[in-house]
Amino acid sequence: LRGSKSFTAALPGEAERNGHGLAYKSVSVGHLEVAPLSPSRLSLGRASSTATSTVPPEQGRPRDYLVLAIFSCFCPVWPINIVALVFSIMSRNSGQQGDLDGARRLGRMARLLSIVSIVLGTIIIVLYISLSVRGNSSS
Q1: CB-based contact 19:41 (threshold 8 Å)
Q2: CB 91 within 8 A of CB 103
Q3: Residue 77 belongs to a domain
Q4: Domains in the chain: how many in total?
Q5: Average pLDDT of 31-50?
Q6: Mean pLDDT, to the nearest integer, of 41-68?
Q7: Where would you find the membrane-spanning parts of this chain (predicted)?
Q8: Does residue 75 contact residue 81 with C-beta atoms inside 8 Å?
Q9: Within a domain: residue 108?
Q10: pLDDT(67) > 80
Q11: Please, are residues 114 and 72 in contact by the beta-carbon 8 Å criterion?
C-alpha cells in the first residue's frame, strides 16, 4: 500500500471562507497555499487604459465629435462617414464608462474620418457640378 500525500489541517477562519462550515481543510503536499504575489507581479499583461491614465479626472470629458460625424453623413462618401459615426458613438460610450484614454483615441479617429469624409465629399460634389455644367454647355 502507498501512503497518501495529503493531510488535513485546521486553519483559523477557514470555516467561514470555505462555505461548508468545516474547520478543517484537506490539502495535497504539492498544493500548499502560498502568499499572494506582490501587486506588481500579479499580471504580466497590459494594464487597462483606465489604470494607466496620466490625465487628472478634473480635466473634463474628452470630445466625441458626434456633431461633426453627423454632419459628415450628408457627404456622398457613405462607408467612411458611417464608420466615423460609429467611432464617435463608441467614444461617447467609453467616456461615459470612465475610459478617458480610449474615448480620446476613438474621438480622434472619429474626427479624422469625419474630416476625410467631408473633404472627399466636397471634391466629389465639386467634380459632379463642374462636369454637369461642362456637359450642359457643350450641348
Answers
A1: no
A2: yes
A3: yes
A4: 1
A5: 47
A6: 63
A7: 65-89, 110-131
A8: yes
A9: yes
A10: yes
A11: yes
Q: Other C-beta atoms within 10 Å of 79: how many?
A: 9
Q: Using CA atoms, how far apart are residues 74 and 67, in angstroms rounded to an integer?
A: 12
Identify the band that residue 104 occupies on the pLDDT scale cut at 50, 70 and 90: very high
Instruction: State the first-to-last Cα distance of the chain, in angstroms, to the nearest integer.
Output: 107
The span from the CA of 56 to the CA of 74, in Å, is: 37
DSSP output for the chain: -PPP-EEEEE-TTHHHHHSS--SEEEEEGGG---PPPPGGGS--SPPPTTTT--S-GGG-PPP--HHHHHHHTTSS-HHHHHHHHHHHHHHHHHHHTT-HHHHHHHHHHHHHHHHHHHHHHHHHHHHHHHHHHHHHHH-
Residue labelled with grid coordinates 477562519: 13
Instruction: Label the pairing between strands 24-28 and 6-10.
Output: antiparallel
Task: Tell me which residue range forms the domain holding 86.
Answer: 63-95+104-137
Q: Quick check: 93 pLDDT over 80?
A: yes
- Which pLDDT belongs to residue 40? 43
Q: Classify the C-alpha dihedral 104-110-111-113 as positive or negative.
A: positive
Determine the residue type at 122: T
Is residue 52 included in any domain, yes or no?
A: no
